[in-house]
Give the backbone structure.
Amino acid sequence: MSKAFIEWIRAIRWQSYEGAKRRWRSNLVVLECLHSEFLHITNELAKHYRTHHKEDYPLLRSIPRSGRLVVSAILSELGDIRRFTNESELSNYIVE
């Protein structure tokens, strides 16, 4: 969910009755809160992994389409990726 998506929803002019409009506004507040928390947690995770995995974090980020959240998830699942001596070990660990 992106900020643009939330803004798109906010810009919709609902033609329904007032109760439905209130529910949509309430849902939008919840959506914005969840989005804010998601961004905060993503930033905290990225900061942690940039600090504690100084070599691996930027290397994994250099992979196309691997954003902060994906790289943080990879590092949280695998820990020290240098413990794998080759791609077969990594692959076997992931499959198990």
User: Anything to note?
Assistant: The chain has a mean pLDDT of 89.
